[in-house]
UniProtKB/TrEMBL annotation:
Organism: Corynebacterium spheniscorum
Recorded coiled-coil stretches: none
The protein's name: Restriction system protein
Single biological process term from Gene Ontology: DNA restriction-modification system
Taxonomic lineage from the root: Bacteria, Bacillati, Actinomycetota, Actinomycetes, Mycobacteriales
Membrane-traversing stretches: none
Stretches assigned to the Restriction endonuclease type IV Mrr domain: 72-193
Record-linked Gene3D superfamilies: 3.40.1350.10
InterPro entries: Restrct_endonuc-II-like, Restrct_endonuc_IV_Mrr, tRNA_endonuc-like_dom_sf, Type_IV_Methyl-Rstrct_Enzyme
Length: 221
C-alpha cells in the first residue's frame, strides 16, 4: 500500500540545499536580464503582454537551470560533444568547415576542434570540463589549456565548464598573448544553448492578434 503523499511549503523546500541552490540560480538568471528588472519595478501596472514576457523569461530561466544540471549528470564524452554542437550551431565552421571530437585519455588538453575553412587554416580548439558547482576552474587548468594551444601553434581557444571560473583563471585567460581564449561558464553555456536551440525545443508559442486598420480603411475599399 502506498504511503500518504506529503506536501511541502516553499519555505520548507528552501531548507533543502539542492532546491535552494536551484531557486537561487533561477533568480540570478532573471536578475541578469535588464527587462526583468525593469518590469519588476512596475509589476502592478504591467499589461498582459509584459506579464507573458515576464513569465516566458521565468520559465526559460528554469529550463536553463535544469539543462545545466542535466549536463553535469551526463558523461564527460557526452558533454564534450554537446559543446562542440553548440559552437557549430552558433555558426563557427562556416559553410565548408569541419567539427571533430578528439576528447579521450591522453588528448593533450584538447576535447574538440572546429575547422573554420576547408583547408583548416583557422581552427578553434575546445576544452570542456563537466564540473560540479563546488569544483571551479582555476589557474592550473587554464595554463594547461594554454600549453595545449601553444603546442599546436593555435591562437583561438574556447574553455567551457558547467561550473564557473575563479578570478585567477579569468586573469590568466585574459593575459594570453599568443591569441584569444574565451571562457564560458555554466550560466552562459545554457543561455547560449537556448538561444541557438541546442538540446531544447520550442514547447509552446502564443499568437497575439491586433486590429488591422487597413481593413477598415473605407477609402481603399
Amino acid at each position: 500500500m502506498l504511503g500518504r503523499l506529503e506536501s511541502y511549503s516553499e519555505k520548507a523546500m528552501l531548507e533543502w540545499p539542492a532546491w535552494r541552490a536551484y531557486r537561487e540560480e533561477v533568480t540570478t538568471r532573471k536578475a541578469e536580464d535588464p527587462e526583468t528588472l525593469e518590469n519588476s519595478l512596475v509589476e502592478d501596472e504591467e499589461d498582459p503582454i509584459e506579464a507573458m514576457s515576464a513569465g516566458e523569461r521565468t520559465l526559460n530561466a528554469q529550463t536553463e537551470t535544469d539543462l545545466r544540471k542535466r549536463l553535469q549528470e551526463s558523461s564527460p564524452e557526452f558533454f564534450e560533444k554537446a559543446v562542440i554542437e553548440l559552437l557549430w550551431a552558433m555558426g563557427y565552421g562556416g559553410t565548408h568547415g569541419e567539427k571533430q571530437h578528439v576528447g579521450r585519455s591522453g588528448d593533450g588538453g584538447i576535447d574538440g576542434v572546429i575547422r573554420q575553412d576547408a583547408l583548416g587554416l583557422t581552427n578553434i580548439y575546445i576544452q570542456a570540463k563537466r564540473y560540479a558547482d563546488t569544483n571551479k576552474v582555476g589557474d592550473p587548468e587554464i595554463r594547461n589549456f594554454i600549453g595545449a594551444l601553444d603546442s599546436r601553434g593555435a591562437s583561438l581557444g574556447v574553455f567551457i565548464t558547467t561550473s564557473s571560473f575563479l578570478p585567477s583563471a579569468q586573469r590568466t585567460a585574459a593575459g594570453y598573448r599568443h591569441g584569444k581564449i574565451v571562457l564560458i561558464d555554466g550560466i552562459k553555456l545554457t543561455s547560449l544553448m537556448l538561444a541557438y536551440g541546442v538540446a531544447v525545443y520550442k514547447a509552446r508559442e502564443f499568437t497575439l492578434y491586433e486590429i488591422d486598420d487597413d481593413f477598415f480603411d473605407e477609402e481603399r475599399a
